[in-house]
Amino acid sequence: MFTGAMAALVRLDRDLRVDFIRGFSLWAIFVNHTPGNWLGHITPRNYTLADATESFVLLAGYAAGLAYGSIMDRQGWFFAASRVMGRVFTLYVAHIFLLVVFTAQVGLSAARLDSAAYLDELHLDPFASDPYRALLEALLLRYQPSFLNILPLYITVLALFAVAMPLLRWPAVMLGASAGLWAAARVFDITLPSWRGEDWFFNPLAWQLLFFIGCALGYRPPNGHPLSVPWRRWAGALCWLMLAAGAVMTVLLYFAWEFTEARLPAFAPFLAAIDKASLHPARLLTILALTYLIAHLVPKDAAWLRSRAAQPFNLMGQQALPVFCAGIALSFLGRVALEESDGWAMQSAVNLVGAAALIGLALLTAWYGSEKRGGRQTPPSGLQPPPRIDNA
Question: What is the Cα–Cα distance from 293 to 237, expressed in whole angstroms?
Fold first, then answer.
């Protein structure tokens, strides 16, 4: 019955490759944000320079270009921009709610376990020393504790998109301007202001390039000629070469740094400069190579995308915002549990309970959304997919 409900609530009138990858990325974010989780050793961050964050931002841009671009073409830029800003407000409210929940659970755990290390490590110590100022700065997005920096990035680039949306009709101009801003942010170290002088963990002036690339790929113009990059065998070979080189660099950078410094002293500075904050070119090329290969080698109508194994990821990908927020909150609870015991039993419990909670929340959110739209469902065996409403 559970799988039947999932199958009924997964919207099939979408590109399920996007939903599956976004759902997988959300699961990986939960795993990677749970220190001590053994599954963290098999997530993509261990063998590619790009990780779940890059895919999340790229696919968010794809969804924005697809959903709001069509609204702009039908009802004009102002109406579409107002819809985008409505989504920005929703994301802002979700961020503040997550901030309150996360800060409360970390603070309570720190008090009960008599461990201030949680507050220091997760950059929540200002709530202990200057709580009112910390709250104000958090509301202004000028203060972002650890794990709470992805939504501010998303909020900022989506607000930029509301202004730049008309440029969807001229993708070369949009991407050229976006690339120029990315280059300037990297070369001149330009970022948005923060409270205590630290740079944004994800510099939105750099990461907007990946978001706008997704927008350009997702937009469907009225003339029926969307932006596409045709398959070329040499380009595919270059992508595979990039991924192989990235895998080697990932090992040298994160798992064999002492060897790199000792045996590859000329190469070590380049590896050390592969930053995440301002979207290093190597990380950007990695996610673009992955996108090119998946777009051309995985058919949109692949049977496995509609299989029972894929349904949980599809559903999570289609309900990304609540699943993301729950994953961040659950990751800290998983950390506390694994610090008590990190044996097989606890590892299994953390991962099974966490995955079940994320899937259950996605299922509940999808069902509630269909009910709210007036699509009251019959019993699972007779369910039909609800009408499509894109959530960028």
Answer: 10
Instruction: Find all residues with CB under 8 Å of 142, minimum gap 6, and list them.
Output: 193, 194, 195
Residue located via tokens 């963990």: 201
Domain spans, the chain: 2-382
pLDDT tens column, 291-312: 999 999 999 999 999 999 999 9
Residue with tokens 């963290």: 40
- For residue 100, give Cα distances in angstroms to 45, 134, 150, 345, 389: 28, 12, 16, 31, 29
Q: How many CB atoms lie within 10 A of CB 262?
A: 10
Here the tokens at position 191 are 């970022």
This prediction's pTM: 0.91
8 A C-beta contact, residue 390 and residue 68: no
**Of the candidates 237, 248, 225, the residue with the CA atom closest to the CA atom of residue 297:** 237
Q: For residue 382, is pLDDT > 50?
A: no
Q: What does the pLDDT average to over 157-183?
A: 97
For 191, left (φ over 0), alpha (ψ -120 to 50), or beta?
A: beta
Give the relative orientation of helices 16-32 and 311-318 as an angle to the nearest 10 degrees.
90
What separation, in Å, do the N-terminal and C-terminal C-alpha atoms of the chain show? 29
Sign of CA dihedral 185, 187, 188, 189: positive
Tally of CA atoms within 13 A in the half-sphere of 277 that contains its CB: 12
pLDDT digits (tens, 9 = 90+) for 357-366: 999 999 999 9
C-alpha span between 363 and 348 (Å, rounded):
22
Residue 266 binned pLDDT confidence (cut-offs 50, 70, 90): very high
Buried/exposed code over 88-108 (b: 16+ C-beta within 10 A; e: otherwise) = beebbebbbebbeebbebbbe
Sign of the torsion angle spanned by Cα atoms 361, 337, 24, 102: positive
